[in-house]
UniProtKB/TrEMBL annotation, chains A, B:
Residues 6-149 form the YDG domain. This is Putative restriction endonuclease. GO terms for biological process: negative regulation of gene expression via chromosomal CpG island methylation; protein ubiquitination. Residues 67-88 are annotated as: Disordered. Keywords: Endonuclease, Hydrolase, Nuclease. SMART domains: SRA. GO terms for molecular function: endonuclease activity; ubiquitin protein ligase activity. It comes from Homoserinimonas aerilata.
Length: 291, 291
């Protein structure tokens, strides 16, 4: 049976399930133990949020979810590095890149006011809007995923989730919309050309199109600044490559593929424009968990 | 004074204004007569919606707005073609490409249940999410703009605007999110390579990233189909170029720049994949108003 993405027939958002077997039988979450259902090849189709990791955060409409592995279930402490190729983690990374919808199921636990009082609840479809690595409080590398709930699904919480995160509220909105006044200024400095490849996108009526890319992302959890030293003018291809972790910026301001750290271009800079190494290192760390 | 984009200091969403002079003095809408404030070079910073054109539609959270020119104010009929280089129209096209926020002001008129009972009301910031040409009912070319209200602004209508347009609800959401199951299938047919240039975007962990592009857009007003004959696998650059009217597809399935219709590439097709000429012609017509 091919992996199914989306809400299965006969299942509705908000539906309660007795146990993992019940979830399995309804096709909501197939594995009986793993929290993530998925593989790097296909993507992840569902996750169970059950408060097993100290770095998890549940805000209702969005969730910070810790990847799989290296965790001692008794103490909830990390005892080893997590791997980006472990199937659950690789599945969520693939889901982010492919834009696959992920079913989110909450299990009863104390850590979240959105969790059901008992058993499991299907919370609907979310998108993996961000993925990054960090060295967790126990000194080992973990992977974190941000999932945002897709719009136009049934409201299932009695109170409206706090929207305490306006800066990030735009994260799932298009790159064009996320543009700030400063990013428009940066693009104009370069006449809408890409600082990596020099390319641009012709738009209607002899106009050119480029994108302002924040190296260290705005909003939680990254809390980057909307400042000139954190913005590049990029073509959509290099913007996507930077956002999706296929490219990092090295200390000599060359652009390198993440997998081998081999530089493929030197960034072009206007005389009045610099970005700081701190921002480049922060972005690099997200993917390598090393500076 | 440089053109100001955004809500001026001291003005709040929902604020009432007596007349055009009052709007001018508060920096909400500077021209005293024109409906669109803007130029092709700088973009458009504000528009007044006052029901002057028969093709206008006001849905509260989104608006279909007719461009400037060729209209007889007495009869409200079109008597000439509209021009994409007229400053208001060029301004809104630039705002779309640059992602500039546009102040929307509604004047009292009978055509919209969101219009104020008298004078003018500042409705907040909107983004130009779409722009296209068509031959209107009077036989002349007009330009139409779709504007979508930015999130996280004050609610100013007593009733919640009808969300009668779920397919288009996602138009302002990122291209990644707009992916459908079929567009993922198309991207996989081409191994995440662009049918125009053969390129791809490297993402984290040896993955490749491409985008599924609907030639005739889903949702209103275009009502394209989510079907294999309407989807291309494109790199983000060529997707943006197609979306922003910098590229059209000719009848021999070559890609051409819109301004001169000179082909620069032949689309690559997998043996099991075809797109229909109707969809390519529909897209071309949006920009040229000629088949």
């Amino acid at each position: 049976m091919p992996r199914f993405f989306g809400t299965p027939d006969g299942v509705h958002v908000g539906q309660q399930f007795i146990d993992r077997k019940d979830l399995h039988e309804h096709g909501v979450h197939r594995p009986l133990q793993a929290g993530i259902s998925g593989t790097g090849k296909e993507g992840a189709d569902s996750i169970v949020v059950s408060g097993g990791y100290v770095d998890d955060e549940d805000h209702g409409d969005f969730i910070i979810y810790t990847g799989h592995g290296g965790n001692d279930p008794k103490t909830r402490r990390q005892v080893a590095d997590q791997s980006p190729t472990a199937s659950g983690n690789a599945g969520l990374i693939t889901s982010r890149i492919l834009g696959l919808p992920v079913r989110v199921i909450r299990g009863a636990h104390r850590g979240s006011s959105f969790a059901p009082p008992y058993g499991y609840q299907y919370a609907g479809l979310y998108l993996v809007s961000d993925a990054w690595a960090k060295v967790g409080r126990d000194g080992f590398r973990i992977f974190l995923f941000r999932l945002d709930r897709l719009p136009d699904q049934a409201e299932i919480w009695t109170r409206r989730p706090a929207t305490s995160d306006p800066a990030f509220g735009t994260a799932t909105i298009s790159r064009r919309i996320r543009d700030t006044a400063l990013s428009r200024e940066v693009k104009q400095m370069y006449n809408f050309r890409c600082q990596v490849c020099g390319g641009t996108v012709p738009a209607f009526g002899e106009r050119l199109y480029a994108e302002g890319a924040h190296i260290r992302a705005l909003g939680r959890p990254h809390l980057g600044h909307d400042s000139l030293d954190n913005i590049l003018s990029l073509c959509p291809n290099h913007h996507a490559q930077l956002d999706l972790g296929g490219m990092v910026i090295l200390d000599d301001f060359s652009a390198a593929t993440t997998s081998d750290l081999v530089p493929f271009a030197d960034l072009t800079f206007a005389s009045s424009h610099r970005v700081t190494l701190e921002n480049a290192r922060y972005h690099r760390h997200l993917w390598l968990a090393v500076a």
